[in-house]
Amino acid sequence: MKKKILNVLLFLITALPFYSISQTLDQSSESSSGIDSGANAANPQGQSFTAGVTGDLTQISLRLGDTGAFTPGDFQLTIYNGNGYGGAVLNTTTLNISSTSSGLTEEYAIVLSSPVSITAGNMYTFDFRGLGSASVNFRANFANYGPGGYYFASGNTGLYNTYDIWFKTFVSPPSSPATHLNFDGIDDYVTLTHYERPETLTIEAMIKTSSFGQEQIIGWAHPTNAFTAEFKLDQNKLTYGEWNQSLGSFLKVESSIIINDNNWHHVAAVRSGNGANNVTLYVDGVSVGSGTVNHSISSQTLNIGAYTNATTDQFFNGDIDELRVWNVALSQTEIQNRASCELQGNETGLVAYYNFNQGNDGSNNSTETTLVDITSNANNGSLQGFALNGTISNWLAGSPVVSGSIVPSNPGVTTPVVYNQGDTATPLTATVGTNGTGLLWYTTATGGTGSTTAPTPSTSIAGSTSFWVSSVNTNGCESERVEIVVTVNAVTPATHLDFDGVDDYVSANNNLLPFGNNSRTVEAWVRTSTTTIGTIVNYGNQSSNQRFGVLVDGSGQVLVIGEFNDYTTSTSINDNNWHHVAVTFDGILLTIYVDGVNVGSTNKTYATTGDLIGIGSTYRTTFWGELLDGEIDEVRFWNVARTQSEIQNKMSCELEGTETGLVGYYKFNQGNGAANNSTITTLSDSSGNGNTGVLNGFALNGSSSNWLDGSSITTGSNCSTLSLDAFTTELDFSIYPNPTKNTVSIDLKDNNKAEITIYDLNGRVIKSQIIKSKEKINMSELANGIYLIKIITNGEIITKRVVKQ
């Protein structure tokens, strides 16, 4: 069957586009049998079809002719999206038919006014009609095209499954975007916006060649002074060299391998300043040569694919992609991680970056004459000598670096990650950077093998440990490694509780407490600088004479509150130093001791009722009030009135917990100092009576409102090893002042000499010396606390306690 381009060639074909790229026959209802009918304004003809390929629909062929009803004029072909006339109009092409064959229909190619992008599997519909009086006969087959049907009269479906218009559709495959530039080795090169060669330099490129000779990848030169810096192939070996004419010297480093095997290779040169052994060459991420190339140069030209000195020569014959110039010396790891992907273009130190993603593969790229620098530096280049059409000397596709496969950005991390020694650690976390699909974890900043499993730090040893993490993608490209520092703080077991004075308190119940007017002793260590009233310990009800509380008032003075039966001393303890406070009552006499010293006593009668204990606060009928801002340790409740000697002997050490009369004992040796103690929410009763306290309001993390270390009482300093009860000899002497801030004097009878030894409460010897009566002993260098002074004179031994403030 004869195929003819209708007299379209004679009318408006000159106004229609010409497609030079190849077309593929997609759909066809070609048949040898059928009927002829007229297509005109009153009787438009339509046909739906299903695209078999994806691409650009550029031509539809119909069988047209004069079999009895031809009127020359303009005709219109319209393409609709979807099956029928309801979809969007994708193209309208108007053509003029002035004459046609008489007595038969023949195939006529109608070239669309613009390509229509179609997708395989989707349906489309074309409509063909005359405009005005124009009319032409067309061939319709008896239904033989399955994936579509026939329309007439602008969408009538009455004959949809009876006929099909004889038609063919032609599709041009979509153009493949180019990925690189081919250089013909004759006259092709790119002149770049000039910038001087950085002293510290990295050059990278993807290249493919099978040529032999000297071929420039990128080169700096001076046309008259003959300075050059060249990154090239020299007899198939990768070379970086520098020429200084005034010195008559050409220094170079070349690779140990040849790479003109017509395969793609990633090549790099790293110049680390002007020192010795400053240049290293890499091929496919492997070091292939190093040496010293340290000329200073001054250039005026900068080219890719050639270099211009006195003349332009050493043309590159092959393909170049992904050319990058840096003003930093990249590490081998950095080169390897980025070789197979595109950069983002904003990396630190990136001077110029050419990814060559321009034009279309092997197409007419005559307008694509500028090589674009992807960085913001705009160091663009101008193409010289390229044909820019066909498969040589043109933009081509097929580079191993996939367009759009961009090196991931750095992962997001939180650093430092802080633990306390002995904490249960969890795996480290990071957020995958843009363009990444996963993470790799390392234990070194460079080198090593990454793991996809996040490490779980060890907290067994205090100190800092670094881990590194990078983002990766499916192309094997990797971001820079980001450091995460894990700090494990050494922890000290806590010795006491800090109360914030806002909402912190400990509550407990104890039905063994002394009630009514019974004898009792309440003790605690406290440190505060408060200027508002605050509770140290309290129990009983808030009713007249039913309460028994030990507090610090706004002046820092110790007071006992019995609820309208109170007693205040004149001794203040709000100096932010640790003080031992004890209150005894023997049924008649109430006595207050501070640091073992009697600071006041009075006769009282109590009717204490209620077993609710408050430490750091007092329950005020409906709320907890009188909150202490300070620190508390070693709270003890006794159902006996302790003597001053007993208080002194036991106040600076821990009890056994089994002492007679001890009904409640809270050591506070729980958690770790200033650590995350969120799980330590109860206060243990060490008396064996099980009256556990409950912590309320505490933050339990950080240096306040939490378990802390640093109490005056050393954990484990048991009183049984420090008691003075075993000493039976009482000498006629005195120690003064006691407490002391700097020195004490010992007044011995008969002015005898004595051997003295000072111990801390752990039994360690602090100092020893021989003294005379009334001689001063210097204690100014000692920390505040309780000390024991053992005195030996005239064969007699006695030990006394001294408070250093």
Molecular structure report:
The protein is mainly β. It has 5 domains: 7-172, Sandwich (Jelly Rolls); 180-396, Sandwich (Jelly Rolls); 417-489, Immunoglobulin-like (Sandwich); 496-708, Jelly Rolls, CATH 2.60.120.200; 727-804, Immunoglobulin-like, CATH 2.60.40.3080. Helix content is 2%, strand content 44%. The protein has 2 helices and 59 strands. Strands 13, 15, 20, 21, 22, 26, 27 and 30 form an 8-stranded antiparallel beta sheet that branches. Strands 19-18-17-16-23-14-29-28 form an 8-stranded antiparallel beta sheet, with no helix packed on it. Strands 35, 37, 42, 43, 44, 48, 49 and 52 form an 8-stranded antiparallel beta sheet that branches. The longest helix is centred in the middle third of the chain and has 7 residues, at 332-338. The N and C termini lie far apart (120 Å). The model is unreliable at 1-21 and 721-731 (pLDDT under 50).
